[in-house]
């Protein structure tokens, strides 16, 4: 009996005594395998044969000897590299042509190294220093001032005003009142402690008050409704013999007609229109 045949799945040539390649439990001669399955090299466009290493990057393939820097032609096999516009470059060529320069030491910031970027400038992470203490700022918060950068503690020590209420540094915003700095959240009505920033307010003996507290504490009271009268809120009022009325409250006690701009009579603490006064 003849021995069982062992042929290439594609061309049917016998594989006995020959080199072959298995793919998905199927055998192929090397020629058929390369024609059917071998990848084409990005550099030379030739198939990457069974006897060659197939180096790949993002679904692209190269012979080992073709996998090299597009600029200096040095081999990139087993070396770090970077991609730019579909070209592969060694880290030195990429850094020379495309990497940013550190604003402090003026040296190239190599691809993959830790860096800091701010308003178009770049630094090695270890070169981005506080202008005052000269320590690396790293990922901590910082504040730009003139041409330098400061960590928050150094900025507060050197530049920030201190709030006259809480005595802590004011780093953003703030309110100035009587030439003194305040945090917005610290500038409060002395009466009700309501925040006054962005609100209308007045003062008494150098203390700030919201209009409501000032009116309740210091404004004259209307004889008619007993509520405060304050011109700060835009109210109009009538004054007569050290007594005051809101304009809308200055009415005849008996018939309630408005007495603003009209003659009136007094009866003890009351005011009457001339018609009602004559009837008395």
Automatic annotation (TrEMBL):
Entry keywords, A to Z: LIM domain, Metal-binding, Nucleus, Repeat, Zinc, Zinc-finger
Localization per record: Nucleus
Pfam families: LIM (PF00412), LIM_FHL2-3_N (PF25076)
CC annotations in GO: nucleus; Z disc
Domain LIM zinc-binding, chain residue ranges per copy: 39-99, 100-161, 220-280
GO MF term set: transcription coregulator activity; zinc ion binding
Keyword Nucleus: yes
Domain of life, source organism: Eukaryota
Principal place of residence: nucleus
The keyword Transcription regulation is assigned to this record: no
Name of the protein: Four and a half LIM domains protein 2-like
Source organism of this protein record: Parambassis ranga (Indian glassy fish)
């Amino acid at each position: 009996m003849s021995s069982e045949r062992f042929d290439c799945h594609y061309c049917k040539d016998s594989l006995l005594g020959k080199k072959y390649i298995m793919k998905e439990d199927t055998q192929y001669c090397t020629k058929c395998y390369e024609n059917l399955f071998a990848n084409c090299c990005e550099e030379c466009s030739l198939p990457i044969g069974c006897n060659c290493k197939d180096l790949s990057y993002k679904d692209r393939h190269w012979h080992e000897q073709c996998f090299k820097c597009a600029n200096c032609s040095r081999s990139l096999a087993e070396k770090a590299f970077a991609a730019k516009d579909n070209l592969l470059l060694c880290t030195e060529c990429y850094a020379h042509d495309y990497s940013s320069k550190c604003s402090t030491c003026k040296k190239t910031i190599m691809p993959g190294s830790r860096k800091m970027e701010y308003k178009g400038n770049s630094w090695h992470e270890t070169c981005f220093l506080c202008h005052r203490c000269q320590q690396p700022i790293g990922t901590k918060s910082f504040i730009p001032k003139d041409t330098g950068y400061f960590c928050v503690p150094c900025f507060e020590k050197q530049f920030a005003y201190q709030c006259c209420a809480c005595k802590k540094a004011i780093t953003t915003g703030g309110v100035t009142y009587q030439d003194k700095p305040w945090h917005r959240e610290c500038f409060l009505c002395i009466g009700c402690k309501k925040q006054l920033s962005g609100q209308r307010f007045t003062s008494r003996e150098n203390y700030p008050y919201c209009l409501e507290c000032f009116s309740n504490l210091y404004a004259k009271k209307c004889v008619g409704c007993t509520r405060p009268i304050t011109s700060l809120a835009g109210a109009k009022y009538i004054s007569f013999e050290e007594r005051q009325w809101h304009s809308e409250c200055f009415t005849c006690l008996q018939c309630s007609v408005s007495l603003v701009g009209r003659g009136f009579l007094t009866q003890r603490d009351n005011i009457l229109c001339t018609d009602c006064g004559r009837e008395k």
